[in-house]
Specification:
Helix 1 crosses helix 3 (38-51) and helix 2 crosses helix 6 (125-132). The chain has one domain: 3-Layer(aba) Sandwich (Rossmann fold). It has helices at residues 7-15, 19-31, 38-51, 56-65, 91-99, 125-132, and strands at residues 2-5, 33-37, 69-71, 104-106, 121-123. Helices cover 47% and strands 14% of the residues. InterPro entries: PIN-like_dom_sf, PIN_dom, PIN_toxin-like.
């Protein structure tokens, strides 16, 4: 399967590598493909630089060691073509997941859980591990 990881989960993997986060990465990298769109990478860099500047220098190493497929997030989004999401800042993430035809979007953002879409399946890290371990 193709698995997209949202920024908030990537931050947890990078900054707080608990056994649960390591298990998540192991399951995905052993059996599936990680898909990271340009929007998520850019947001990750921005958040780390702003909130955790001392760790920003380690981000290149983290990303270079994480095997993933890099995709481009379109900038001009026709909001009428996609499901309505409460937080419009999350729309590029949703659009990337849909246009890249990922099977699962792993996120901790509750705004995604109210979406009524067939694909991608939207799961928390814990639910993903529980279901696909």
């Amino acid at each position: 399967m193709r698995i997209m990881i949202d920024t908030n989960v990537l931050i947890s993997i990078f900054l707080f590598p608990t056994s649960r986060m390591k298990k998540l990465v192991d399951i995905i990298t052993d059996q599936h493909t990680i898909v990271l769109p340009s929007y998520v990478i850019d947001e990750l860099k921005m958040v780390i630089r702003r909130k955790f500047p001392a760790r920003y220098q380690d981000l290149d190493t983290f990303l270079s060691e994480l095997p993933f497929e890099y995709t481009y997030t379109i900038e001009k989004i026709d909001m009428h073509k996609y499901p309505d999401i409460r937080d419009k800042k999350d729309l590029p993430v949703l659009v990337s997941a849909i246009t890249e035809d990922v099977d699962v979007l792993i996120t901790g953002d509750k705004d995604f859980y109210d979406l009524k879409i067939e694909k991608p399946e939207i799961l928390t890290p814990a639910k993903f591990v529980e279901k696909y371990n």
